[in-house]
Amino acid sequence: MVEQRDRRYSDRYHFDDAKVYCQENSTFGLFKQFSEPVALNDLTKSGISFKTNKLVSRGDQIELKIDIPGRQKIKIKGRVVWVADNQDEKHAIGVQFLPFGTMKQYNSFTSREKLERLINPLEQVQPPIDEILQ
Questions:
Q1: Where are the domains of the chain?
Q2: Residue 128 exposure: Cα atoms within 13 Å on the Cβ side
Q3: With a cut of 70, which residues of the chain have pLDDT below it?
């Protein structure tokens, strides 16, 4: 894992062999399938970027599965904040994670804990609130 710093608020993290699966988060269709895996470009505490051949638009809400070898998989919801067309068939996209909370439209606190453990592996992370309340 290599850490890079740029003009953005959060540090960006890169993981070798990390894969992202993408799914539109619509209310239609009971059997929505995730896309084929694509390579993760970078990950921050607040979002992710990757290339996909799925047609997405700015503002679309999507659900992601992030698979980094040797780590727990993370299932997380987000909103597409930018789309860049490339010369190849794939589009680079940036996704901002939705807030964390206990309501259905939010990401779970368990997802937040997994994300924090992934990005801050040396820090002690508190148990997610939904596990404390059980």
A1: 2-132
A2: 17
A3: 1-10, 24-32, 87, 121-134
CATH topology of domain 2-132: Thrombin, subunit H (2.40.10)
User: Which has the closest alpha carbon to 97: 117, 74, 127, 120?
Assistant: 74
pTM over cut 0.90: no
DSSP secondary structure of the chain: -EEE--SSSS-EEE-TT-EEEEEE--SS-SS--PPPPEEEEEE-SSEEEEEESS---TT-EEEEEEE-TTS--EEEEEEEEEEEE-SSS-EEEEEEEPPB-SSTTSBPHHHHHHHHHHH-TTS--PPPHHHH--
Amino acid symbol at 120: N
Main-chain dihedrals φ then ψ at residue 119, nearest 5 degrees? -85, -35
- Measured between alpha carbons, how far is 68 from 86 in angstroms, rounded to an integer? 25
- What b-and-e string marks burial along 14-44, b requiring 16 or more CB atoms within 10 Å of the CB? ebeebbbbbbbbeeeeeeeeebeebebbbbb
Q: Are 130 and 109 in contact (CB under 8 A)?
A: yes
Q: How many CA atoms lie within 13 A of 29 on its CB side?
A: 8
